[in-house]
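Table S7 (text form). Paired inputs.
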Amino acid sequence: MAATTYERLKLHITPEKFYVEACDDGANDVLIIDRVSTEVTLSVKKDIPPSAVTRPIFGILGTIHLVAGNYLIVITKKKKIGEFFNHVIWKATDFDVLSYKKTMLHLTDIQLQDNKTFLAMINHVLTVDGFYFSTTYDLTHTLQRLSNTSPEFQEMSLLERADQRFVWNGHLLRELSAQPEVHRFALPVLHGFITMHSCSINGKYFDWILISRRSCFRAGVRYYVRGIDSEGHAANFVETEQIVHYNGSRASFVQTRGSIPLYWSQRPNLKYKPQPLINKVANHLDGFQRHFDSQVIIYGKQVIINLVNQKGSEKPLEQAFAAMVSSLANGMIRYIAFDFHKECKNMRWDRLSILLDQVAEMQDELSYFLVDSAGMVVSNQEGVFRSNCMDCLDRTNVIQSLLARRSLQAQLQRLGVLHVGQKLEEQDEFEKIYKNAWADNANACAKQYAGTGALKTDFTRTGKRTQLGLLMDGWNSLIRYYKNNFSDGFRQDSIDLFLGNYSVDELESHSPLSVPRDLKFLALPIIMVVAFSMCIICLLMAGDTWTETLAYVLFWAVASIGTFFIILYNGKDFVDAPRLVQKEKID
């Protein structure tokens, strides 16, 4: 079986069945999905009824079961990102969610409402930018992994051979994956960021590509998913690969990021920065070892760069991380703590060179992957930098962009694009492309995890910290605060439903969506707003008797401030919490 999926498809709809027709040259296959029995079969074009309603589609994302029954999710719009070694890479930009059922009359009012909420969750995930695919190329693997494969692997379908960590529609494709004969209709989709640029330095043209692959294991939003799970999967784990293609030669440099691999939490509670809590009873070493055992198997040596603060609320996490590395005593793992905020305070971002100088020799040892135009492997990457801060977003992306530039400098010199002594930073046109691409990568990763664009992107884009950048960081921080406290429960539920961490059971007697909120938690914010408003009204309508007015103002001021502190004290009860999957409670 060729490692491709069908590129051109038509969806034919009748009241009883969905017919997905392969329209590639020479193709005669038709995937038939029975809307009543949900059976999936493979047939030929002559079986498509002429009465069917027809529309073009660009891929099957998969199927999902909700209260009303099964739904088919298809890609309806796509955008070309570029070509990758003669393989076209696409971004999916619009989707359609189609019900198998022709009517909802079989549902109660509560079931109808639940089904509407579940549909909103699925559509929410689909509106988060960053779904990519190729019908002819395996985007889930790095160049180095693909270079070290067997002939049997090469013959597998894209779905079979894909790295399941990065197949975001793996759960949605479970029915198709069980039937190998229909795998050419099963399209693995990546979530993250991809950008491609044709560049020129010294009159020599090369392709420069940046790919970030978000793991679907322990996926979620900023404050509800931290640390690791029992399998050693880290929250917000992203594999980022930088690729150069010049005159048939290909070079790649891979880095990873992921939450501090301990059992810890940081649940939202209306405070700007909730206190991180480390689990006092969990076997941290077991989960920690599982995490790094898998990382060493996949990537080789691990150079950990921990960028968290070494004082305040982040200090215990840095100390625990260092202690775990020491306890593990694995020669394949090295640990470097660099207090990003302390070292770069007062906008002294030039001091990042301290870290780069510290790891320069290690980076040379890790090397990079390089294969020449004849297909011979010239060098392998022997390990990766595993960077983290608290969110593995802003500070992490800055450091990754600097490490990637240093590797790119060496690659372009080796390939003969840069002359001896030339610096990449001096190539103004390319530097603009490079910096903007890494800033876009930061924004994509941040929006997918924290709900807003990244912070500190002014440095990534311009190479210096600016006052405007600080103002934009303040605005993004404010938006993050709101989303993390008042909408992330829904976002987390949406991801859990999409990835199959929660399965809908329409026969369930008690829906998790119907848990009523305590009335006091609905009433207190209203009371606070009313009291504050009355305080302002009393000031605006002050009459001749200031003593009486002052008494009213004080009464309403005390009422509003008192209510505010009651809400703040019970902050965790006022935030939008997930309802579908019980998240770890770490006390």
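Next pair, protein 2 of 2.
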Amino acid sequence: MAQTDNKRFFENLSGAGKAIAVLTSGGDAQGMNAAVRAVVRMGIYVGAKVYFVHEGYQGMVDGGDNIKEATWESVSSMLQMGGTVIGSARCKDFRMHEGRLKAAHNLVQRGITNLCVIGGDGSLTGANLFREEWSGLLAELVQQGLIDEEASQKYSALHIVGMVGSIDNDFCVTQRKCYLALVSALACGADWVLIPEMPPEDGWEEKMCQKLSAKRAGMKRLNIIIVAEGAIDRNNQPITSEHVKNLVVQRLGFDTRVTILGHVQRGGTPSAFDRILASRMGVEAVLALLETTANTPACVVSLCGNQSVRLPLMECVQMVRLWVYRGMRTRSFENNLKTYKLLAHRKPESELPQSNFNVAVLNVGAPAAGMNAAVRSAVRVGISEGHKMFAVSDGFEGFYKGQIKEIKWADVGGWTGQGGSLLGTKRTLPAKHIDKIAEQMRKYNINALLVIGGFEAFLGIMELLAARGTYEELCVPMVMVPATVSNNVPGSDLSIGADTALNAITVTCDRIKQSASGTKHRVFIIETMGGYCGYLASVGGLAAGADAAYIFEEPFDIRDLQSNVEHLTEKMKTSIQRGLVLRNENSNENYTTDFIYQLYSEEGKGVFDCRKNVLGHMQQGGAPSPFDRNFGTKIAAKAMQWISKKLNESYRKGRVFANTEDSACLLGMRRRALVFQPVVQLRDETDFVHRIPKEQWWLKLRPLMKILAKYKTSYDISDSGQLEHVVLNRPKQSEAMAAI
């Protein structure tokens, strides 16, 4: 972004003279503290006064010590904490006019006219009512002699921005918008799910038992049934977990256990995703408050895909009520539901279309958590589309060696939660073995390829594409799904496996910082993976609350290192006890992790001591996160649908022949949508020497990390959300699986 735009931000959007209050309301949720931290620090950064409102609306009504000015240090060490440290309470008083009058008086006394509310549907609706009544409330306060006319004029407008903080995820603009039970069923590959939004058909009991029995006959020893709170049947009768248990025991005689998760779901440390989402939303909320005018409607800030958005609060509330009244569901919910049905319930052979196409799937590059979920999804969607699916072991190396076999529906059962690559994966590229790969494709009559992997997969697709002129066997539809912890594949903002790696980094950094809880003034130097891509170091640093993150994409020298040491030294003179510095493994060939550790140790003598840790391959291992399981599942399903479409388009005279640019694509997340992009068109976007995209969206998050670490820096607001309107978008039947 041009420097003039940054100047415009810091001059025109100054928070000097403004007061912002932040509160959490309703049930607590993981990530609330990260949002509070971001609001406080961004507010202070732009020159505003920021206040905590303890205990939600009850604290606003009661006033006194419940409304306290926040400092930079008062939000230290809260990023990794679950729940909300400022308290959250449902308030009957605020529902009454007298309670809102007291709340208005308490805010005016402190000059607060900007309110950031973190909560669910009811909390945000209450905030908007408060805003609509504000002028009338001030008039009453003047009439009662509690404030004077000058104060009434000075604080005449109340500005409100909402952030959705709810584990139910039932508001119309929030990312990952569908209910816990359904997404959990997708993430764990549950055998059956019962949710209130989709009452099962009459006779569901028999169908469920038949499926469970068939699974046991197929040597499956474990079944999972997920019952949502509030599940009902077609007659509006409740379906409880105990009822389902008794049903299974009586009809099948299976040993059955009931586990009610309850508040376990509400507690615990927030994931990296929740911390990053909350931090971005918190900063966006402050920006929205600074830009608001008397005529600006109260808004909700969120992310759509990977982009910040602002939507009128009451449009969102009205949309939710319309959904409830009409029994409607969001497009995302419908797609999750259709995907679950497609992958969990196999149609009888007689009902499957007969395509006579053979599709091969393989993993290429380093293993990434979520690869197996993607393979499972691809295999089952392919079989549902009538294709014969083939699994290739050990990537392109296994391909040319003929390690290819048909893979069936049951073969991928239980793969969703498995880490690594069960197919086997290697970094071998196909160029030296093109003739043998073409021979294997001819032998097995492979009509399409799905390649799941990292940068080597991208290079491999390009090499296959280049050989089409020599080998007609390669003139088939090919699609790549990015899967790498480094998140360095061009054409996609996100890769399967990156979220799991971020969680590993975040959890490890939390533990490392906790190890020094009894030690004053310690700085940890942490090395992350990623090759030349600084995604893990930068975004992991934002999630873990790092003070600095050194990456290849942002060159640094000894003066920068010295400046960072001095900055940490100043922070250590306050109540800050621990510092965290991340370094990408290939950020600089001279300023190694050892060098930075020794420099910090020497320059910090007498103020802080240092420790270093190299995280290594622990970032690559472990079970995939729920995000990676669902992302892998849905993106692979979409890739298989594209393959089916291309196969039908390119089938002529009894054979498949596809040699156009758009017949070899990469499916990636771009801002708000999943997009198919011809691989050849991505060539100019790629730095092949360092194996990274030339432009990377997450670089815009680095100033945010610096701001939250108390550095003075310019902040690019080109991606800040603009006020949009809520659109009622009821998905057509044909779109059920097309849009994810």
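The longest helix spans residues 626-650.
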